[in-house]
């Protein structure tokens, strides 16, 4: 790697492209990059929410923020949106792949195969599509850039989500492959692996009885779940010059879930037990 390539890896310039940018982690990331004064492209299928967010953020920190209706599972559609983003806002310097479908627990024996295939098309293939389209844009515009994929604790251990879980494992490996392939162009590729993130969508599932909050908290080392802003902090760091030599990692933002989950189930008992939830 020559000195020019190393320099490109320091501080990515250009537009920040956020898929799934209308809500949750994507929304928090869009707000973060807009506040930095970077042009932001919000890609989502949630048109009404995306337009409202873009309108609210446009001009924040002097930045231009635009919404683009985009189904990431459509490779040709992603290519077309990428071309529009480059023309209207400038080539991508940052890409955050937050678009995803999130299921409820199910059995492999009983799962809906059509829903399984749809989840892979969005969560895995959608990530691949946007990384190809905007990764090529980074290369063609002179190299340099940062990509952050959004994995999960599902990238680390098996959980009873037979489409989502293997898909997030595949994203972790894809992140490493992209890091190796794009590094020669000064493009760094990392991922974040959040635990359950306290979003309005998660709260709605808790309220509907689809998630057991005390049980979820019982296998975390910390007594707090990350918010979308907490994950956006990690995303911003991985895209910054402070992380200029970091590539190919999947960074847990998990309140100690990975460290604690097996510890809490040790059959010989544990020396400390969390107080019962009120």
Give the helices and strands, then pairings:
Blueprint: H1 3-8, E1 15-19, H2 24-35, E2 40-44, H3 47-57, E3 65-69, H4 75-88, E4 92-97, H5 113-140, E5 145-150, H6 164-182, E6 187-194, H7 200-207, H8 213-217, H9 228-239, E7 250-253, H10 257-260
Parallel strand pairs: 1-2, 1-4, 2-3, 4-5, 5-6, 6-7
Could you describe the largest sheet, including whether it forms a barrel? 7 strands, parallel
Quote the average pLDDT.
Answer: 92
Coarse morphology? globular
| Helical fraction | 40-55%
CATH topology: Rossmann fold
What would you call the structural class? alpha/beta
**Count of domain modules:** 1
Low-pLDDT regions: 1-6
- Strand tally is 7
Distance separating the two termini: 56 Å
CATH architecture, by name, is 3-Layer(aba) Sandwich
Strand order of the largest sheet: 3-2-1-4-5-6-7
* Superfamily (CATH H level) name: NAD(P)-binding Rossmann-like Domain
Features:
278 residues, globular, disordered N terminus, seven-stranded parallel sheet, 10 helices, alpha/beta, Rossmann fold, 43% helix
């Amino acid at each position: 790697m020559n000195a020019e390539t190393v320099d490109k890896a320091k501080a990515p310039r250009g537009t920040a492209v956020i898929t799934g940018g209308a809500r949750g982690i994507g929304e928090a990331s869009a707000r973060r990059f807009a506040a930095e004064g970077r042009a932001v492209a919000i890609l989502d299928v949630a048109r009404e929410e995306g337009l409202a967010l873009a309108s609210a953020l446009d001009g924040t920190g002097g930045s231009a923020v635009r919404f683009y209706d985009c189904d990431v599972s459509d490779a040709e559609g992603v290519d077309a949106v990428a071309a529009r983003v480059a023309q209207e806002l400038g080539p991508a310097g940052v890409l955050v792949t937050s678009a995803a479908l999130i299921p409820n627990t199910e059995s492999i024996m009983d799962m809906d195969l059509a829903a399984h295939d749809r989840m892979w098309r969005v969560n895995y293939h959608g990530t691949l599509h946007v990384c190809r389209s905007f990764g090529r844009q980074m290369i063609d515009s002179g190299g340099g850039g940062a990509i952050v994929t959004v994995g999960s604790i599902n990238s680390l251990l098996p959980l009873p989500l037979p489409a989502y879980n293997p898909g997030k494992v595949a994203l972790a490996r894809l992140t490493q492959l992209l890091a190796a392939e794009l590094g020669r162009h000064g493009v760094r590729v990392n991922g974040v692996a959040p635990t359950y993130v306290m979003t309005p969508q998660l709260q709605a599932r808790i309220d509907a009885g689809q998630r057991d909050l005390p049980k979820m908290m019982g296998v975390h080392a910390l007594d707090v779940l990350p918010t979308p802003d907490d994950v956006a902090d990690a995303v911003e760091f991985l895209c910054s010059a402070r992380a200029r030599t970091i590539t190919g990692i999947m960074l847990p933002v998990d309140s100690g879930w990975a460290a604690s989950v097996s510890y809490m189930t040790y059959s010989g008992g544990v020396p400390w037990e969390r107080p019962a939830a009120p």
